[in-house]
Give the backbone structure.
Amino acid sequence: MNKKKRIGFFISDKSYVRNFIDTGILNNLCKKFDIYVFLNESFVFDKEKIKNAKLIETYKPPKNDGLHQYANLVSLWNKNYKALSFRRRVIENFDIDQNIFITLNLKKIISKIFKRLIFYSVVFFSLKNIFPIFKKIFINNIEINKDLIDKIKKNQINLVIQPTSGHLSETLDLLNYCKNKQIITYLIIDNWDNLSSKVCYYHQPDYVSAWGDQSKIHGVKFHNLAENRVSVVGSARFNEYFKLRENKIENIFKKKYILFLGSSLPWNENAALQILDNHLNQNKAIYKQIKIIYRPHPFRKIQTNFNCEKYKNITLDPQIANLKYREWPNLDYYPKLISNSLFVVGGLTSMIIESLIFWKKYVAIAYKDEFKRSQNYIFKTRPHLFDLENIDDVYLCKDRNQLENIFLNVFKEYEIIDKKKTDNQRNYLLYNDEKTFEERIVNIINQIIFSK
């Protein structure tokens, strides 16, 4: 094995501390390769958990994030014909689909007008004949985080690896610098939808690893990445789940329950909960003492005004009640919560995949409600969700009036009998085989090293 390649591993988000350091994955990679670890200085982490690294250093946070995010929006609009989600992401960012004068507050109206003007500048700079000029004058001259680049220079890094959502400013800085210096870049995409909605690369990475065949197709189709440069590795944060699911996992709750999961974008979760609460109340002979455990998304765009006293059969997940807003919980908690539920109901989040890992059926809310960007809107505008139609254990509820019937039908046969079929269908979205996530990453790194 070639250990002479100097690998820089950049951690640029708190969730990657959890997914790669706390899980032990990065430390094990450091046993096999000469890895220099660089982290944002604002992150709290335990150096002992990456003690096998050749070097551990922190870098100063970026100051160019606003410029990169603007450039990314221009790039997304420039390629909006590639994916519906590219177009919708820009529209949502500037609230173009909402009336400027929906409020009588003068400050808010002025703010909306200002956002609209910025949107028009995005559209202008994205024009076919204008974008190359914009890239040359604006994008190529965004000042790169000097401290970040100094780490590469000082340690003579010749392979940069970064877990990323795609549009982190550090990612875009690294791609820009490494492309000019002919340093190999390898991105490990950290979430389900990142290649289909969040970024349109103006400097392409050399290698990319994605969750499953679905996101690999998105990388090739939406980003023009070479097919032989996009690999399928699964996800770091779910690595342990596949081991745990075979075991009996501690139950947090004494009674049987059905799990209800919120999502990050706002929709009327309380109304759905009320429907199900009434349904359970009216059908005690069927459901007995079964309760619904409600878990809002920790990164929800609006604070949840959940009042437990309004419901007779619904309890707020105690762990989320004690969790700070926009704070990721420990990975050890989710398996307990999901695996011991009868089945899961909720929004269109990656928790659908987590539920399938633990062989739990999922009733996915995909109907319209009074929110402008309801779950129905999300379902129709996010390409990564389109394939849910082909997953037998996901029950899409596109009509609010059908929620009770779907819920009841799933309850009557909530156990998944053919687990192998469930795994095969889930594999398209999130890959898993007899190897661990870490072993797949080792194989990819070796392929990159020996291809040069």
